[in-house]
Design goal:
The structure is a homodimer.
Chain A (H helix, E strand, L loop, with lengths): L3 H11 L4 E2 L2 H6 L14 E3 L4 H13 L4 E4 L16 E4 L6 E5 L4 E4 L5 H10 L16 H7 L6 H4 L6 E7 L5 E5 L11 H5 L8 E8 L6 E9 L2 H13 L6 E6 H11 L9 E9 L1 H17 L4 E4 L3 H12 L1 H6 L4 E4 L9 H15 L3 E6 L4 E8 L4 H20 L18 H20 L25
Parallel strand pairs in A: 2-4, 3-4
Antiparallel strand pairs in A: 1-2, 5-6, 6-9, 7-8, 7-9, 10-12, 10-13, 11-12, 11-15, 14-16, 15-16
Helix pairs in contact in A: 1-3, 8-10, 8-13, 13-14
Chain lengths: ~475, ~475
């Protein structure tokens, strides 16, 4: 509960209309895209500009009140759930594209701009901003930066961190700090820009970002390769890359995912396939044609049952949209959908899929797997029911073993969704006690009062590893 | 001076042959590639592996003795001068390529491998590692990572930070920490890999790196465009990029640089040109031809005096080698050569060159400018004489104004050489007092006893800005 004096101070910064603490507002901001996590904040605030964010932080730090900055809350790690109460700061009013610099190929944006809206604006100017998380129709660029979002084009083009070259942030103290700039090279001190990207709102509030844009590819082609043998599909992923071809997109869907996506998007996909690869290449027409032809040969050598190239841009878009809808489609199956993103070296995709299936069967839970195969970034997704406590325990046990398996294969607990609340107990498995200690020291430097998104990334207690490491 | 017990402890870790404290060894490691900086270490040590590095760090931290890790010492910021004495750790014995993974397109190397040797090894396997600092024939990958080295291919391919995806480091305490891995996506906690890249040996000792490799371009073409008008050359740089063409290399040399490079490399360059652009494009043959043709048109529209495309690979290599030799060639002019790397948004190249010339004239010093124009990363280079104190003061005053001008144009004090000793007094101009405070907090977390490369990055006192900021 906030005392009236603090509420008054916050109202005087943003105006009465932009601070809310009625129950409807609090409940609306008590959860995010992650199932089964909810906690009420004490207030919700909507700043208009950086100076308001700074003034708000000064009030909050003087009173040691937690601050959870958020965009649309589409994250899947509980990253914006206000577990220790405090103020949720919604960045949607700060949604301007401040500049597109056609000479330097950069854009300066406020954090609340919707990712897809920004991408469309940029594409209309004949430029390209590759990071395209599946949530992009509703997610914000600020949220993408906080989580270091990936997407379908990550394999060839990299993720959010590869396109953010400067930031303006407000620190816990209310101080405003700028990092980087419109500079392709800058080694003046430690790379604070990259450190802030993916810091999940625990180090500072992002108030402005300078983004790198690139020339768009001139041409693209999309193809589907369907496999009756799951491991043929997985081997195809490695083989394509071993052949020095880096497709723009190289997505994987297993049989259960194919079934629900087809039912959702009415694509007429063959339902007896063990796996489908959705492959897109872009670039100059000649090289795209050459790559697609070579990929077709590789698919056939790996016993693909069918390989088809989209005849038109509409057909290609339909396929991509269907893949993007996998999460939504799976969510219709049962009341609760838990999507994870264990990631492995791409050569280990086949082993990882095999492990996921073995673990799902062991715990008698339904796990569908799809994801960015070219990155080794899989999304094993459990369809379950939050009201069935016993089943949820089995789902949690299964995911614990899936994280363990990913680590054993040289992978990580999260490729693009972030640690947040959900994976905090497992972070030590990836980065070790030393890594945790260093990260906590960095957190302490930025946020000595621990008011920025408290309770995230660092767990009170790390989960003990269930499997003995024989490495 | 080290006491005998400490020397004995260090000798017992590496063996007598690999710890040295004779005067010849100390003098040899008292300086690096930066002129006019020298300080004697107390000893020089050559570890064989990570466990030796760890054992050494335990001895040094127990006794609060500074440690300066280095490769070949080719840096140009005084980054490896042992200004507070202590032990210089030379990484040359740890020079193995531990693995090249053809399925994941990654390599694991020890830090002491020579950059060019690694690049050649990788190219023989049909793969590509783009970062190519001009020092690459002698520099080490470990040194490149410590400085976040750039190079001629940075414009299209990025710099060292874009290719290091995992590290093994030894902390000041002697603890061994791993970050990242063979993973194209990994958001498990703060990005310590990127934080360590470019940290100039002040946060940890790099003992192993996992590098991302990419498919090599199939084809390349090299061209020279010569301009009698300096600003025509500079405008050409912006116009090429505005036309959505990102060349692999886009280098700039001004008239004084042309003269010395030609004298050095005997290329028969016309000596009456104000500037030459060296442009290289790579990729598929069709797109390279198209880009080169379009670039030729742009050069001609900007009144280029001559545009010539290298007829053979040998001719192209000769041109590139000549450009790489600019520093060496300039170094023959006068006893002391001071090379800087003020960097600006690429649209500001013309203004920056104009400012450099104005400042050089004002202070009556000779400054030649060349560099990676496509990145806005210029290398204004003073040819002077360290024995002439009065002239050196004028050179220093000129560089101070050049850094100031770069900042005023939205640039930075260093694009690829690092802060080290030389630019420490100017760091605050770029990152502000808040940025410095945050960076010092990070330093404190990694190295609470301040034994890792002390005296670097953070100056005792920041230089006051001479020009009033009207922004």
């Amino acid at each position: 509960m906030l005392d009236n004096q603090i509420k008054q101070a916050l109202r005087s910064i943003v105006g009465d209309a932009y601070f809310k603490d009625d129950m409807e507002s609090l409940v609306t901001h008590s959860y995010d895209g992650t199932p089964m996590l909810q906690a009420l904040p004490d207030g919700v605030i909507y700043p208009r500009d950086t100076s308001q964010v700074s003034a708000i932080m000064k009030v909050l730090s003087a009173n040691r009140i937690p601050l959870i900055s958020r965009g649309s809350g589409t994250n899947l790690c509980g990253g914006t759930v206000p577990v220790q109460g405090g103020i949720v700061m919604v960045m949607h009013r700060m949604n301007a594209i401040l500049e597109v610099d056609m000479q330097n190929l950069t854009a300066v944006v406020q954090p609340g701009i919707i990712t897809k809206k920004f991408i469309e604006h940029i594409e209309n100017l004949g430029l390209f901003y590759p990071p395209d998380p599946s949530s992009m129709a509703i997610s914000t660029i600020g949220g993408n930066i906080a989580e270091c979002s990936g997407g379908l084009r990550g394999l060839k083009y990299g993720t959010t961190k590869d396109y953010v070259i400067g930031l303006q942030v407000v620190l816990a103290s209310g101080e405003i700090m700028r990092t980087g700039g419109k500079l392709m090279k800058d080694v003046a001190g430690y790379d604070l820009t990259k450190l802030l990207i993916g810091s999940e709102g625990t180090l500072a509030v992002i108030t402005e970002a300078t983004l790198k844009l690139i020339p768009p590819p001139k041409f693209k082609k999309t193809m589907l390769a369907m496999f009756k043998d799951l491991y043929g599909a997985a081997r195809t992923v490695s083989t394509i890359i071993e052949n020095r071809i880096i497709p723009a997109t190289l997505e994987f869907m297993d049989n259960p995912t194919i079934r629900v996506v087809d039912d959702f998007a009415k694509l007429g996909l063959p339902l007896d396939m063990a796996a489908i690869l959705l492959i897109e290449q872009d670039g100059d027409p000649e090289s795209v044609e050459r790559d697609i032809e070579r990929i077709r040969e590789i698919c056939q050598a790996e016993q693909a049952d069918r390989v088809s190239v989209a005849a038109t841009a509409e057909e290609a878009l339909k396929l991509l949209t269907a893949r993007r809808s996998a999460f939504t489609a799976l969510a219709r199956l049962r009341p609760t959908t838990i999507l994870e993103d264990a990631t492995v070296p791409r050569s280990k995709i086949a082993e990882m899929v095999m492990e996921i299936n073995r673990i799902a069967e062991k715990h008698q839970v339904q796990i569908c797997t799809f994801g960015h195969a070219g990155d080794g970034n899989l999304h094993p997704t459990a369809t379950t029911d939050a009201r069935n406590t016993e089943e949820i325990h089995r789902v949690e046990a299964a995911f614990e073993e899936i994280f363990e398996a990913a680590i054993q294969l040289g992978g990580t607990i999260t490729g693009e969704h972030g640690v947040g609340l959900v994976k905090a107990p497992f972070l030590e498995w990836k980065v070790g006690q030393t890594g945790i200690a260093i990260m906590q020291g960095i957190k302490q430097t930025f946020d000595p009062l621990h008011i920025l998104n408290p309770g995230k990334i660092f767990a009170k207690e790390s989960r003990r590893r269930v499997v003995i490491d024989h490495a």
